[in-house]
Amino acid sequence: MTGAVILGVGGSLPARVVTNDDLSARLDTSDEWIRTRTGIRTRRWVEPGTSTSDLAVDAGARALRSAELSTVDAVIVATTTPGRRCPAVGPEVASRLGMIGVPAHDVSAVCTGFLYGLANAVGLIASGAARTVLLIAAETFSTILDPADRGTAVIFGDGAGAVVVGAGEPGGIGPCVLGSDGTGADLIQIPAGEDYFRMHGTEVFRQAVKRMSDVALDALARTGLGPDDVDHLVPHQANQRISDGVARRMGLPESKVLGNVATVGNTAAASIPVLLAEAAADGRIKLGDRVLTVAFGGGLTWGAGTLVWPDVTADFGILGER
């Protein structure tokens, strides 16, 4: 069976930085309360008029430039905040990247969206339907947050990350192990007829630590690896306490856990590729490193997979700045 590898990686963040003090000025909270419960100091939010597709196009263009490609055989966009209920944002993003006629679709799995999209991309390549796929995860969660809900308003940020996945020798991208449990659908949701995102934080925390650590160990086992073989754990950046809990449950030392939740917040589906792009750009991830990715999100959904980091130059930056 044809394997899949990462050919390029890109990431894009909005320019606007929102601090804990900015939020404390209008919410019953404080910098200390936010930091001790989430690990977040700042997050980035889009300015009015900036859309999810704007971030997706920028991250996608950066990933294509990283891969030294101008087009691909398929485009996948993972998002919970597409801007329109219909149609999907994928075709718009593909056309804005100059790929009119290329098949494009969305994936909706909330914070697990990137890994669900990665499984789709690998499947297209394994089946022979595509040789190259641009996978983008992009979110503007600031547009669906209740400004009076300190339980969610302090956590989420906006951003986009992208990878170009291509056919290659087996082993670059390991099996993507996915799962879901619809009985917990009300824990993370936008209720019908409402505009704002709702989350039951305490139960989500408990479920996230267990589901993420279990599925991460499953993904390692299916690859014939154990925790000691991992160079870097790249968890969905939900909350620093969740990342710490997953690492402890897996027996991984803090030194192997990568994160950026302190500076960008929880960027939902975009959090893993944004972190991959940032860590590759600043040298934390290097050629040949074995990376374990894992996420948990609404649905409920969860997933994990391994990567052997390729010889790529990441393109990571601020929207509108090249």
TrEMBL record:
InterPro entries with a match to the protein in the record: ACP_syn_III_C, ACP_syn_III_N, FabH, Thiolase-like
TM stretches of this protein: none
Active site: 111, 236, 266
GO biological process annotation, one example: fatty acid biosynthetic process
Span of domain Beta-ketoacyl-[acyl-carrier-protein] synthase III N-terminal: 106-182
SUPFAM superfamilies tied to this protein: Thiolase-like (SSF53901)
One of the record's GO cellular component terms: cytoplasm
Pathway: Lipid metabolism; fatty acid biosynthesis
Gene3D superfamilies: 3.40.47.10
Molecular functions per Gene Ontology: 3-oxoacyl-[acyl-carrier-protein] synthase activity; beta-ketoacyl-acyl-carrier-protein synthase III activity
Pfam families referenced in this protein's UniProt entry, alphabetically: ACP_syn_III, ACP_syn_III_C
Chief subcellular location: cytoplasm
Location in or out of the cell: Cytoplasm
Catalytic activity as recorded in UniProt: malonyl-[ACP] + acetyl-CoA + H(+) = 3-oxobutanoyl-[ACP] + CO2 + CoA
Keyword terms of this UniProt record: Acyltransferase, Cytoplasm, Fatty acid biosynthesis, Fatty acid metabolism, Lipid biosynthesis, Lipid metabolism, Multifunctional enzyme, Transferase
Beta-ketoacyl-[acyl-carrier-protein] synthase III C-terminal domain location: 220-309
Catalytic EC class: transferase
Region listing for ACP-binding, in residue ranges: 237-241
EC number from the UniProt entry: 2.3.1.180
Entry text on domains: The last Arg residue of the ACP-binding site is essential for the weak association between ACP/AcpP and FabH.
Family of this protein: Belongs to the thiolase-like superfamily. FabH family.
NCBIfam families xrefs: fabH, PRK09352.1
Function, in words: Catalyzes the condensation reaction of fatty acid synthesis by the addition to an acyl acceptor of two carbons from malonyl-ACP. Catalyzes the first condensation reaction which initiates fatty acid synthesis and may therefore play a role in governing the total rate of fatty acid production. Possesses both acetoacetyl-ACP synthase and acetyl transacylase activities. Its substrate specificity determines the biosynthesis of branched-chain and/or straight-chain of fatty acids.
PANTHER family per record: 3-OXOACYL-[ACYL-CARRIER-PROTEIN] SYNTHASE 3 (PTHR34069), BETA-KETOACYL-[ACYL-CARRIER-PROTEIN] SYNTHASE III (PTHR34069:SF2)
Name of this protein: Beta-ketoacyl-[acyl-carrier-protein] synthase III
Organism from which the protein derives: Saccharothrix ecbatanensis
Gene name in the database record: fabH
